[in-house]
C-alpha cells in the first residue's frame, strides 16, 4: 500500500462556509479595532494616578498583562461554550460584552 495517492483516487476536500468565514473575520476585526482604539489611550488614563513616567509604563504593562492572563484562562471555557451552543452565539455575546465594556470605558472618568 502506497502512502501517495494516485490521480484516480477521489480525495475528500473540505468546503469552507463563506458566511461563517466572513462572520469570523468581521468579529476578529472588530475586537482588534476596539483594542487598537483603547491601547493608545491607556497611558493618558493612567497619567493622573501615577506621577512618574517609569511607573506609568509599568502600570500600563501590568494592565496589558492582566488582560492577556484573563484571555488565557477564559479561552478554554469559551471553547467549551462554543462546542455546546455554537460559535456564532458565543461570538455575538462576546462582541456584545466588548461593546458594553468599551461604552463603560468611554463614559467612565476614573479607573
Per-chain topology:
Blueprint: H1 18-38, H2 42-46, H3 53-85, H4 87-107
Describe the overall structure:
By secondary structure, this protein is an all-alpha fold. The protein has four helices and no strands. The longest helix has 33 residues, at 53-85. Helix 1 packs parallel to helix 4 and helix 3 (53-85) runs antiparallel to helix 4. The mean pLDDT is 82.
Supply database-style keywords.
111 residues, elongated, single chain, 72% helix
The SS-based structural class is: mainly alpha
The averaged pLDDT comes out at 82
Helical content stands at over 70%
Give the biggest sheet: none
Unreliable spans: none
Pattern of helices and strands: HHHH
How far apart the termini lie comes to 66 Å
Shape verdict: elongated
Global Rg: 21 Å
* Total count of strands: 0
Work out the strand percent.
under 5%
Q: Total number of helical segments?
A: 4
Give a nutshell description of this structure.
The chain is mainly α. The protein is 72% helix and 0% strand. The mean pLDDT is 82.
